[in-house]
Amino acid sequence: MDTTTQPPSLLNVFENLEESTKQLLADIKSPLILGLATLSLAENKAQRTYMSSEHIVAALEAAGVAVKRTQISNAFSRAGNKISRKVIDGETCYRIMTSGQREIKSLFESQGEISVSYVEGGKPRTARKLLADMFSSLSGEIKVCDPYYGLRTLDALEMIPANCTVKFLTTQTTEKPIKLSSAIADFKKERPNTELRIFPDPKSLHDRYVLSSNALLILGHGIKDIGNKESFVVSISKDYASDLLKSLEKTFDERWAISTIL
To answer: Is 78 helix (H, G, I), strand (E, B) or coil?
Structure first.
């Protein structure tokens, strides 16, 4: 049996980049810096050491960023020792070198520690699109705390990739239990990796957040009603505030242990 691990799909990786990373790429004006950043992301996240200019354009398109192939080729023709070149299947392919990594180091260091996304009131569809972009990049075990739940909560949880293990901790609803119970039963059939629990003390559960293996999302409004009112979503990386994430995860786990399955 072949147990060789296949590298992740390049296009899937770029399509599922964190929204903050996509915005960073979209704001880069220099084709050289954009190309170098793409090579670095491809090597770190998709295990792709060499890429042609065509591959770079396709990867960026998957991330929602447009650039012409000639722009990348022309920029790389003047890149010097920032990249290495190799002909693969008759096509020139590029790999980022140490000098190139130094060129974009500050770019990535200034991104991803803390980011704040503004959620405009009265635009729930736009807000849900923002939430979908953030949730789609999550991986591993996800812990969600939100005091209120309803039908739209299930829609929001479905934005998280199906291969993630999700724990949703809540406490109360204002919606009809009969209608909700049927929808939750259907949801569980299709999302067996997601578990919902009710915390017994509504007064002490008031924070709204999402914990993943590498980041914390702090939500200014509940996920079922996001966009109905003005709010913010704050993303904090684990590297920036590891103690905070550990403390919050400990509290979540303690509450989860005494909660009942919904």
So the answer is: coil
Q: Are strands 141-145 and 165-170 parallel, antiparallel or unpaired?
A: parallel
Residues of the chain with pLDDT under 70: 1-6, 106, 108-114, 239
HSE toward the beta carbon, residue 29, CA cutoff 13 A: 0
Q: Domains of the chain (ranges plus CATH)?
A: 10-109 (1.10.10.10), 114-261 (3.30.870.10)
How far is 178 from 189, CA to CA, in rounded Å? Answer: 17
- Looking at residue 2, what is its pLDDT? 47
Indicate left, alpha or beta for 201 from its phi (over 0: left) and psi (-120 to 50: alpha).
beta
Q: Mark out the alpha helices in the chain (DSSP H runs).
A: 10-15, 19-27, 31-46, 53-62, 69-76, 98-109, 124-136, 151-157, 177-190, 242-257
Give the integer Cα–Cα distance in Å for 6 and 9: 9
Complete edge-to-edge strand list for the sheet that includes strand 91-96 = 51-52, 91-96, 83-88
> Using CA atoms, how far apart are residues 59 and 35, in angstroms rounded to an integer?
10
Instruction: Specify whether the CB–CB gap between 63 and 25 falls below 8 A.
Output: yes
